[in-house]
Amino acid sequence: MNKIKSFYFLPFLGLLSLLFLKVNGQNSSSFWSSSAVNRYYDSLSFINKSIVIDSAFKTLTIKKKFNGVVLISKNGSILIHQAIGYANLRRKTKLTKNTLFELASVSKQFTATAIMLLEERGLLKYSDTVQRFFPNFPYPNITIHLLLCHRSGLPQYYNFAPKYWKNKNLDLSNDSLMSMIAEHKPLLNFQPNAKYEYNNTGYCVLASIVEKISGKSFADFANEEIFSKAGMKNTIICTKLSKISNYSIADGHDTKGRLRGHTWLSGTTGDKGVYSTAYDLYLWDKALRENKILKKESLINALIGKSTELSPFNNYGYGWHLGAMYWGQPLVFHGGLWNGFNTLFIRRLNDDVLIIVLSNYTNWSFSRQSSNWFDVIDGV
Asked: Structure pTM?
């Protein structure tokens, strides 16, 4: 029996069970209470939505060659969690739900969280300048707040680093980047706080601040203070994948399906560098909702737009894009794109709908699809 037929057969089974209770003289009033009926039909709706979403991703796989892992949940209940395609397209190595993906810029929410944890502990203030922690940092008016919400004016490091990093056989690290900025003083794109402009360099600087204050590597701090506490057993920060043997890690592929290898720009963290699974990100979202990592006040602050010249529903907080859909329903989200990985994390705040898509094939197969998934979730 196929899934669609099974779904339409379920109400009949439910009526049969009621009849069975009556015939055998059992009291069915508890089963036939309004709350029980609601739960029963809610479960049928849940099954139906799961089937429809599953079918939608199968269509994406056939028509647009979607390759990756998807997880969609509502109010903590998982509608769909599926691995589709290959970890390596050439070798036909199958993806699994436990395969790790480079999160690319979805990593930024963890960097922002690390900073917020230090602020909660009184070890920094958002108003602190970078120079408080790195006196040779050449821009006196750039604060942690401006780095978090992309208003620093710093240039993108991948635009200026190629000019100064001569040995491309060595990876650029956060320490090397900070030294490069101090020595060469690349021109700012604009004066600090003049406007919003999405920026990766700032999040590398934030990771360096975490290391300076904590006395730990950014990877160790994140693992101890965030990943472990959220129960994320398949999440790491890593710049040298060759040294990792106990995880299954996907390979990134370009738009033509060609392998994208490690580059010298892959050595920085804070802006990227987190490898994780869809289920671990589900656990991360749960930990945030339950305030296991951050205080409620810190999370609320992170989800408030910091650029007053922008709409509240087209803005950026601390590590999160802010948006809206359907009559102003608030969304927090982040996407990522790096070395053949394309990632998406969306959370709708009013009912805790969560959409996670991790792909290692940059073919834009799931671009502009999220509104369709919301339509299915919101359907009767």
From this structure: 0.86
